[in-house]
Amino acid sequence: MTGVSSARAVNLTKKLTEIGIRDQAVLNAVANTPRELFLDGALAHKAYENTALPIGQGQTISQPYIVARMTELLMQTQPQRVLEIGTGSGYQAAVLAQLVPELCTIERIKSLQIQARQRLKKLDLHNVSFKYGDGWKGWSNRGPFDGIMVTAAAATVPQALLEQLNDSGILIIPVGDDHQQLLKITRHGDQYESQVIEAVKFVPLINGDLA
C-alpha cells in the first residue's frame, strides 16, 4: 500500500502509544491506513477520533484502539495466514493486510463486503481473499489458520473457529451479550488456553441466514 500518513493519523498513533499500544509495526499500519476512506463522507471529520462509528446496516467501524489492540495480540506469534470474521467496512482488514502475507475475511452483509473489497483495491492491498458467508462457520477449505480475529461479539466461542486454528494458533474474539470480554485463545494440540484481555463492546456476531 502506498501513501503518506496524515498529521491526524500520526497524532492518533501517538495517542494509541500513550494508552498502551507498543507494537511499532501495528502503529505504522494504523498510521498508513486512511480511516476516512472507510466512513461515510458526513463522518469523515471524526475519522481520527478514538471512537467507534456507524457504517450502516446496524454495523460499526471499531475504535482505533481496539483495532490496534486486537491486531497487536494477534501478531505476537507472527502469523502467516489469518482469518478475519466480520469484514465490515474493511478497516481492520486493511490494517491486517499490511502485516500478514495472507488474509482471508468473511462478511455476511453483501453490500458491506462489496464496499470493503473496493476500498482495499483502492489501497493496493491484494493479499486479501473475500468470502460472503456465515462467520460462525469459518472458512474450512482455506484453513487451518495461524490466527483468527473476530470483530463482532459471539454469545459463545464458535467450535468451528477453534477447529480451524493451527497448533499454537491464536483466536482473538469478544464473547458475551450485555457484558462482553475480549479473549485470547491459544491452541495447544487438542487443548485451548483462554486468557481474558479486557472488557469490550461490539455488535453481535449473527449466526445463520445471510443478509
Automatic annotation (TrEMBL):
Q: What is its EC number?
A: 2.1.1.77
Q: Which residues form the signal peptide?
A: none
Per its UniProt record, what Pfam families does this chain match?
PCMT
Question: A Gene Ontology molecular-function term?
Answer: protein-L-isoaspartate (D-aspartate) O-methyltransferase activity
What InterPro entries does its record include?
Answer: PCMT, SAM-dependent_MTases_sf
Q: What UniProt keywords are attached to this protein's entry? A: Cytoplasm, Methyltransferase, S-adenosyl-L-methionine, Transferase
Q: Please give the chief subcellular localization of this protein.
A: cytoplasm
Q: Name one GO biological process term.
A: methylation
Q: Which reaction does it catalyse?
A: [protein]-L-isoaspartate + S-adenosyl-L-methionine = [protein]-L-isoaspartate alpha-methyl ester + S-adenosyl-L-homocysteine
Q: Where in the cell is it found?
A: Cytoplasm
Query: Which catalytic residues are annotated?
Result: S62
Family from the record? Belongs to the methyltransferase superfamily. L-isoaspartyl/D-aspartyl protein methyltransferase family.
Q: What does this protein do?
A: Catalyzes the methyl esterification of L-isoaspartyl residues in peptides and proteins that result from spontaneous decomposition of normal L-aspartyl and L-asparaginyl residues. It plays a role in the repair and/or degradation of damaged proteins.
Name recorded for this polypeptide: Protein-L-isoaspartate O-methyltransferase
Q: Which organism is it from?
A: Shewanella aestuarii
